[in-house]
Amino acid sequence: MASLTVFDLLAMHDFVSDLPAGWLHRLALLGKPVHHPAGTRLFREDTAAKHLWLLHSGTVSIDFHVPGRGDIQIERVGAGSVLGWSWARPPYLWRFGAAVIEDMRAVAVDASRLRELMTEAPDLGLQISERMLDVVAGRLQAARHRLIELYAYPGTPS
Asked: Which CATH code fits 6-152?
């Protein structure tokens, strides 16, 4: 993956691969390839949401903190997934937390610059917004299922 450009990595990611090349080039200017080893805490709830990650490999646990119980995993995401949606709406604070379970490689997109680009290019902004809505809906559904699992089977390990 080291020899691939950010544009190449975006062109291979399902979230944006079908966008026009001109838009991908503009998005590529906002991103950088990143690697985070297993055990890395990417972010916690209520901290500044500064990136959108497009995962190419690895596994990340999405969680939320429950006083007295610790971090409760609600979903695992991997290659081809999108991580982060809290950057898209004020107050730009993470609604969940995330930790790397298996070494992760991704494109990290600067959220502030992405919001600016979405304003400058409304057609692109609409495409990104619609896709992010799908991500949000999926995360909320996963949280719902996890809460049902926890309440229906209180002894389920976190």
From this structure: 2.60.120.10
Q: What is the pLDDT of residue 142?
A: 79
pLDDT at 78 over 70: yes
3-state helix, strand, coil in the chain (%, to 5): 35, 35, 30
Does residue 79 have a pLDDT over 50?
yes
Burial of 124 (0-12, 13-18, 19+ CB in 10 A): buried
Q: Which residues contact 120 (CB under 8 A, 6 or more apart)?
A: none
CB 63 within 8 A of CB 99: yes
Q: Where are the domains of the chain?
A: 6-152
Q: Are 9 and 54 in contact (CB under 8 A)?
A: yes
Q: Please tell me the pTM assigned to this model.
A: 0.87
DSSP string, 1-52: -TTS-HHHHHHTSTTTTTS-HHHHHHHHTTEEEEEE-TT-EEE-TTSB--EE
Q: What is the DSSP letter of 84?
A: -
